[in-house]
Specification:
With 343 residues, the protein is α/β, with parallel strands linked by helices. It has one domain: Ribonucleoside hydrolase-like (Inosine-uridine Nucleoside N-ribohydrolase, Chain A, Alpha-Beta Complex), CATH 3.90.245. The protein is built from 13 helices and eleven strands. Bound molecules: alpha-D-ribofuranose and calcium ion. Calcium ion binds next to helix 1.
């Protein structure tokens, strides 16, 4: 199993948290850097969450860099109602006592890809602010990166932030456009893979998935998440990874329920992380994607030209379908066994 080196750019966030755990649990994954981007919560809180999850997981001393506080142009918008006051739902992560990198996220991106041309896969599960800044710092970045996988956008699917726009792109549309434009011209097999809501909203994590995860980790008692749990309820799982992850996920399930989506959690980011390790997990279609910046109603919307209306070559591969059962079986196996090893 060959090693997949990754830069992970996150706005941790509940599903970003599970994406980090999935990669830490994956023997073939080597995270060479974590960029902390403002989105779900401000970048300083994102960075603290990243450091503290590494502590909970007793992970190696992986570089965590602080990203820009605000988007390129737009004022910062965050969404604590979705991810909790600190971005990790009901979880209260112990202070890991780990320190931030001495370089910012954009410089970390640029210097890591220069040092290892063609070796690193980029995974972005938050706004594209710091990747855009990194490309300004190193214009060759798209060609120095082995591949880019992004959780972002909505194509033949409604938005989750406006009727047509998805959160990560909506927070920083200018950055998304700069990134998609910069990655234009790459050959087939090197184009960014976009995991948009079309597919990630089929990844519906439910209480039985959490129960299986805890059982796989050997955690006791049985981890039963109920829609009747009040906001004051906290997990009593014997396994620390399960305990904190369960408290995070339950907040996300409460959010989805109060928004009439059912007592479930769309696990956008762990799906993108799984695609970064195994692109074959998703069926994709090439398209030319651009971002609406000026529409009064449509700003932040990702527009996909599937058939060449614009006479521009495809610049991305869009995930159009997957098998959620295969994904969850893999995630539960990996993260459950990893959590058991952490204890
Ligand atoms: O639209 C879903 C995306 O926005 C996910 O990455 C979630 O964590 C938020 O960042
Ligand atoms: Ca995210």
């Amino acid at each position: 199993m060959s090693t997949r080196r990754l830069i992970v750019d996150v706005d941790t966030g509940i599903d970003d948290s599970l994406a980090l755990l999935y990669l830490l649990a994956s023997p073939e994954a080597e995270i060479v850097g974590i960029a902390s981007t403002s989105g779900n919560v401000p970048s300083a809180q994102v960075a603290a969450n990243n450091l503290n999850w590494l502590g909970v997981c007793d992970a190696p001393d992986i570089e965590v860099a602080l990203g820009a506080h605000a988007p390129l142009v737009a004022p910062l918008r965050t969404t604590e109602d979705t991810h909790g006051p600190q971005g990790v739902g009901y979880a209260v992560l112990p202070d890991a006592g780990r320190v931030l990198s001495g370089r910012n996220a954009a410089t970390m991106w640029a210097e890591l890809v220069r040092a290892r041309p063609g070796e690193i896969t980029g995974l972005v599960t938050g706004p594209l602010t710091n990747l855009a800044l990194a490309i300004r710092e190193e214009p060759e970045l798209p060609r120095l990166l082995r591949r880019l996988v992004v959780m972002g956008g909505a194509f033949n699917h409604p938005g989750n932030t406006t009727p047509t726009a998805e959160w990560n792109v909506s927070v920083d549309p200018e950055a998304a456009k700069e990134v998609f434009d910069a990655f234009s011209g790459l050959p087939e097999g090197r184009r960014p893979v976009l995991c948009g809501l079309d597919v990630t909203e089929t990844i519906e994590m439910k209480p039985h998935h959490v129960r299986r995860l805890a059982r796989e980790a050997g955690s006791t008692p049985a981890e039963i998440i109920s829609p009747d749990d009040g906001p004051e309820v906290r997990s009593t799982a014997s396994n620390q990874v399960i305990r904190h992850m369960s408290d995070a996920i339950r907040f996300y399930m409460d959010f989805h329920r109060t928004h009439d989506q059912g007592f479930l959690a769309h696990m956008h980011d762990p799906f993108a992380a799984a695609v970064a390790l195994n692109p074959g997990l998703a069926r994709t279609r090439p398209a030319t994607v651009d971002v609406e910046l000026h529409g009064r109603l449509t700003r932040g919307t990702t527009v996909a030209d599937w058939v060449g209306h614009w006479n521009r070559d495809p610049n991305v591969d869009i995930a159009v379908s997957t098998d959620p059962v295969v994904f969850f079986d893999d995630l539960i196996d990996r993260v459950g066994r990893f959590a058991k090893s952490v204890g």
